[in-house]
Amino acid sequence: MAADIESPDDRTAAGVTTGALARRLGVSPTTLRSWDRRYGIGPAVRVRGRHRRWAPRDIAMVEEMCRLTATGVPPAEAARVARLRFAADGADGSPPEPARASTRAVGTPPSPPPVRPGGAGSGLPLGDVRQECRGLARAAVRMDAPEMERRLVESVRRHGLTVAWEEVMVPALRAVGRKWESSGDRYVEVEHLLSWHVSSTLRSAPFLLPRAEPLPGAPPVVLACTPGEQHSLALEALTAALGERGVPTRTLGAAVPAEALLACVRRTGPAAVVLWAQTRSTASVPLARHVAGLTWGAPGARRRPAVLPVGPGWGRRALAGFARCAGLREAVETLSRPYGDDWTR
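Structure (tokenized):
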């Protein structure tokens, strides 16, 4: 048994296993083997009867390929660039790997890589999503913060806030959440990092997109999570989208105590109150009805807020008597409607 155990020095000299490298890069071992088989991006030294080992030069090549595919470069082209950059360098002191024999006819393009859910290299269950979402997911799994920031900002500038939220940010967040739930405690750091960058991008929206002039003297929209609700990203997206329209907002954030919410409504006299609940356990129908019943103003001209319960925590019965919105776009339209030319009436 002792003869079968390698010392740390032996492992370092032999290189890194495929499984260890896959965990390091945030891709699946199947993806690495596919890249090796199809594009020649693999370990240069192979020991018969043992796991394949990746030397420093091999790792540099596959890291470069991951970086290129994350920016949208097709895998075949990314592999060609990575080989040209590293294969001939002999960066680890070893000679370059000889060209492999190919049975493909001259001038015939290489076979496409196998398609699997989430796109090559992400390891996440994404399904049919935008390319920008795939790139964001790959960067998130690698915990590549600069790449995540670049992709999020580019998505908002190119597609606008609503499309970027619904078709890029949300699918990536959901995929990371599902991966975390199915992997025990793994990937929680990925979800936290991605959420932080999404939040940062949403709060930077006023500097990324043109905004309408604020409506002077208009009553605000108050946005709050219900008591005990910690998920506030959707409210941040709605705040940013309303800001594009010039709608004034007062966003209270996560887990707002009922007393604090009621005090804010009385003090600000909002046109509408948005209550976000991610789960049924935090969706408080009595609170929503209490807020809807608040009034203020002079006798004979009293006003009360429109209440908009949003989020998957509100069931159909809970929404009885309240307006309903299917997504960010519809919520923005509903909340912006009172701020037309006749909003003061």
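The two ends are 86 Å apart (CA to CA). The CA atoms of residues 223 and 235 lie 7 Å apart.
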